[in-house]
Amino acid sequence: TCLRNCFVSTSILLYFQLSQQIMELFQVCQQQADDLEKKELCRAQLQREIQRLFPQSRVYLAGSSLNGFGSRSSDADLCLVVQEGSVNQKTDAVYILGLVQQLFYRLSYIERPQLIRAKVPILKFRDKVSGVEFDLNVNNVVGIRNTFLLRTYAYIEKRVRPIILVIKKWARHHGINDASRGTLSSYSLVLLVLHYLQTLPEPVIPCLQKAYPESFNPSMDIHLVPNGPRDIPPYTSKNDSTLGDLLLGFLKYYSTVFK
Fold first, then answer.
1. CA-based R_g, the chain, Å
2. How many Å apart are CA 105 and CA 233, to the nearest integer?
3. Strand, coil or helix: what is 30?
4. How far apart are alpha carbons 217 and 212 in whole angstroms?
5. d(CA 85, CA 89)
6. Residue 11 in this model has a pLDDT that exceeds 70
7. DSSP-assigned states of every residue in 101-117
8. For the residues of 66-135, what is the DSSP string, one character each?
9. Among candidates 127, 142, 138, which has minimal Cα distance to 35?
10. pLDDT tens-digit map of 113-145
């Protein structure tokens, strides 16, 4: 009995230390307010420039920079919305990005604008002022919708952001966080963690799309999307697992349980 109690006490201490290390890593690596401000300043300036070409267009910040899961070193995703509805990505999007590329060549603070002809074509460039690398797409509005859905998940429960950041760091360290090399994208990793947190016997987070369908209506006008989830309250979970519990539980779930 004494030996078992000693083992239990040691296990609790190790889990506590692991949780503390996760939180310390999160505090150091999470995107800071000034990081986001630099990206937002560039977005606003580029929107003014692009509106000289497309007067009714809007430029939205998307991806990890805005969804709450970004780190200090995260690149920034931008979505140029030139019209309601879809744009042919093979032809129209490439043409529009080509025009924007020519514009960017004339801007002294933009460096290396490079057009990448992918399934969703992007214009890659660097802002000399902030040093941030940007990826600009055209009318990939599902990315904007997903950004605000994930942002709501990020802030609905205090354990979500730290556990996701540490799992992304773990995946990158082990070379399995690079979609261009056939491994998992950061977006895929986020979805894996959210699924795990939702399907525990006592969930850490709810399914927001089921609980608040009107806030995430896929037919909502894109300019209303940022305000859609604004009134969703924080979630109080009955699951009191530590960050250490959740990290080890995540690894066990996808190695032995999930099929």
1. 21
2. 45
3. strand
4. 9
5. 12
6. no
7. HHHHHT-TTEEEEEEE-
8. HHS--BTT--EEEEEE-SSS---TTTHHHHHHHHHHHHHHT-TTEEEEEEE-SSS-EEEEEETTT--EEE
9. 127
10. 999 998 999 999 999 999 999 999 999 999 999
